[in-house]
Specification:
The protein is α/β, with parallel strands linked by helices and 156 residues long. The chain has two helices and eight strands. Bound molecules: copper (II) ion.
Length: 156
């Protein structure tokens, strides 16, 4: 008798709990926000983040343009290693003037270098200098690309 009663009580709790949870489920997902289209900012429609994939064929897209302050993410989908680094191989001095032996050293406290400093599955870098910055895969310098950073437009 006690077992039966316990079973009934548990069944009721499960049913009531399920009803409660389902009752709280929205019937439809909230509508996605419509992208704001503003002719005055048409030139600045670059997404806030740009993703570059690295495969056995190289970086894709190979050349991208971003605005100052934007972040680029590289994702390794190749069968080998990816170590994104500023030109020029092997010292990687072009972006910030410091060499790999300096900016990849333990204890380095200067500006964040455009150098992954080791191979990894993905790498993110935020560009805060205008210019065209060439980079390559330090683990396979025959693979390269560029990021063109345009100065943020002055706001009136
Ligand atoms: Cu290199």
């Amino acid at each position: 008798m006690n077992r039966n009663t316990t079973g009934v009580v548990i069944a009721l709790i499960v049913v009531a709990g399920g009803w409660y949870l389902l009752r709280g489920t929205p019937v439809s997902a909230p509508a996605a926000e419509a992208p704001a289209v503003d002719a005055t900012t048409a030139a600045a429609t670059t997404p806030s983040e740009v993703t570059i994939t690295y495969t056995d064929q190289g970086f894709s897209p190979q050349n991208v343009s971003v605005a100052e302050g934007q972040t680029v993410t590289w994702v390794n989908q190749s069968s080998g290693s990816m170590w994104v680094a500023s030109a020029a191989h092997p010292d990687h001095t072009v972006y910030d003037g410091t060499s790999r032996s300096a900016h990849c050293a333990a204890g380095y406290s200067g500006p964040v270098p455009f150098d992954e400093c080791s191979a990894g599955a993905s790498y993110r870098f935020t560009f805060d200098k205008a210019g065209t910055w060439k980079y390559h895969n330090h683990a396979d310098a025959s693979k390269f690309g560029s990021v063109t950073v345009t100065a943020a437009a002055a706001q009136n």
